Amino acid sequence: MVGVAGLFSYPVKGCAGMALGATELTERGLAHDRTFLIVDEDGAARTQRGQPQLARINPDIDPDGRRLTLSAEGIESFALAVDITAPRRNVTMFGHPYRAIDQGDGVAAWLTEAIGLPSRLVRVPPEHTRVTDGLVPGTSAFADSCPIHILSVASLAGLNGAITARGADPVTLNRFRPNIVVDGWDEPHTEDRASRLAIADTALGFAKLAIRCAVTLVDQRHGVRVGPEPLRTLATYRRAAGGGVAFGAKFAVLRPGLLAVGDDVTVTQWDSGQKHAGITEGRPFRKDPPALVDPADPPALVSSACFWPDRRRGGSPTAPGGPGCRCIP
């Protein structure tokens, strides 16, 4: 039997997730997923790419979305009455402009203390419109792209088998921050080949492969980077044709409804036309692969949105594979 083994919503982008027994699937994804965004003084998004310590912040949101509680070790929790009527302000995420609702000075002061950098919290406005890309377009709040990220237990088991074969420690599921975890598929990466999925009364359409970035190098419990895994091993067998490494799949919502752990997952349409193709999958794992980054021809192993501070330049961002990039040692 193939079913939902886990449901995870991330109310504040970049912060810890909430494990759910049941939730609503909306057009924007799981209820309240990435509804809130932490920004700097200029309104630019803060994410784990630049501030891995965000992982130490644990959000909890009421089912109706009216009250958000933030907690972190060593600091008193903060309860926020969510405001959707305040004036809108301009923010940016990966260079793209959005409008958002600032949630006030109180939570801004709390976040500034928790993160150690001047920060504010904004919420996606009710009138938010955003079209996400992929084979099936959709909409989302402040997710990187598509509203739903699906990962299978079989895919993680296959990856960890390859990682441990190299003598490294396996990685945990939360490194990949999925929304829906599926168990019961025999083959790893079955999510890559599913064009349409039915879960309970809902329906999802495959949008694109999930290209992984340096967030996967962050220990989600402690909020620190501990690379090079899993990117190093993924680069040996999951390179995407368009650059980067892929693990998991992104889906758009075709039919909203209610979801629960234990719901059956049915593939109603497979990718028979190879529209999802583009992975160098099936190459045998080599215990001692060649160097992953050739200085003469550095491959793009992580997404273009991924930045690792180049310490030789005082912490300024550097493009993946460029000078100072340490995503793939």
UniProtKB/TrEMBL annotation:
A GO molecular function held by the record: catalytic activity
InterPro entries assigned: MoCF_Sase_C, MOCOS_middle, Pyrv_Knase-like_insert_dom_sf
Domain MOSC stretches: 119-268
This protein's name: MOSC domain-containing protein
